[in-house]
Write a structure and sequence with these properties.
Number of helices: 11
Subunit structure: Homooctamer; tetramer of dimers.
Number of domains: 1
Distance between the termini: 16 Å
Keywords: Cytoplasm, Pyridoxine biosynthesis, Transferase
Catalytic activity: 3-amino-2-oxopropyl phosphate + 1-deoxy-D-xylulose 5-phosphate = pyridoxine 5'-phosphate + phosphate + 2 H2O + H(+)
CATH superfamily: Aldolase class I
EC number: 2.6.99.2
Number of strands: 8
Family: Belongs to the PNP synthase family.
CATH architecture: Alpha-Beta Barrel
Mean pLDDT: 93
Order of helices and strands: EHHEHEHEHEHEHHEHEHH
Largest sheet: 8 strands, parallel, barrel
Helix content: 40-55%
Length: about 260
């Protein structure tokens, strides 16, 4: 009997729904309804990245989505952001209200950054942040929250991530997405596969995200072993404008299933 290969969870990042809503004062499209429709279609989780300027996800969204997910106990809530900005305030308050997220993804972005564009460089200029990260990871664990560190695909960095107490790393996949379909694709896939194996060798689990889409997702998951979760926002919401949330989520789940 052939053992079943565990599938990769799909977590839908709903930031871009909030970005569109914020262009008017009508409260549409609804972030919580978007999340509900994605969950109904089979998404295994919802991700938000509330930045300090609230240019997309707002504070009330964080708590309304946590309330929504109480009705979906088999799904996960992932809240990401820079733990030195506003992320920890949300995690602490959610935990205090009995709605702690399942996962906190620590991302080293600046307050005004357009989008996340690199992982923690623990052996480079971010080394000074290591002790602060260690303490905040320990605090999350005390609150019952799993921690994933947003990391570049650098195998040698995984030991440092594990040493801080992280449970997972989320591999920053934009370099792979940019190379997909071109001469550099194979090299990027090898790089990410090596990083995933290095992480797993230390005891870390592996997530992935950034610019993954229906064209490149299956190839990535076939090449990179043991990816526990992909967090997809921009491409998925763009597809949903044409296909609708339910059809889009089902097609991303198809892409994941094809990699098995």
């Amino acid at each position: 009997m052939t053992a079943m290969i565990p599938t990769t969870a799909l977590s839908v990042n709903v930031n871009k729904v909030a970005l569109l809503r914020n262009t008017r004062h009508l409260d549409i499209p609804s972030v919580t309804r978007a999340a509900m429709l994605c969950l109904q279609a089979g998404a295994q989780g919802i991700t938000v990245h509330p930045r300090p300027d609230e240019r997309h996800i707002r504070g009330r969204d964080v708590f309304e989505l946590a309330e929504l997910l109480k009705a979906w106990p088999d799904r996960e809530y992932n809240i990401e952001g820079n733990p030195f900005h506003n992320l920890m305030d949300f995690i602490r308050e959610l935990a205090g209200r009995g709605m702690r997220p399942h996962q906190a993804t620590f991302v080293p972005d600046s307050e005004g950054q357009f989008t996340s564009d690199h992982g923690w460089r623990l052996s480079d200029h971010d080394a000074k942040d290591a002790e602060r990260l260690r303490l905040l990871i320990a605090e999350c664990h005390a609150l019952g929250v799993r921690v994933s560190l947003f990391m570049d695909a650098e195998p040698q960095a995984m030991v440092a991530a594990k040493a801080l107490g992280a449970d997972r790393v989320e591999l920053y996949t934009e370099p792979y997405a940019a190379a997909h379909g071109g001469a550099g694709q194979a090299a990027q896939l090898q790089r990410f596969a090596d990083a995933a194996r290095a992480a797993q060798a230390t005891g870390l689990e592996v997530n992935a995200g950034h610019d993954l889409n229906r064209d490149n997702l299956t190839d990535f998951l076939r090449a990179v072993p043991g990816v526990k979760e992909v967090s997809i926002g921009h491409a998925l919401i763009a597809d949903a404008l044409e296909l609708g949330y339910a059809a889009t989520v089902r097609d991303y789940l198809r892409c994941i299933a094809q990699a098995r």
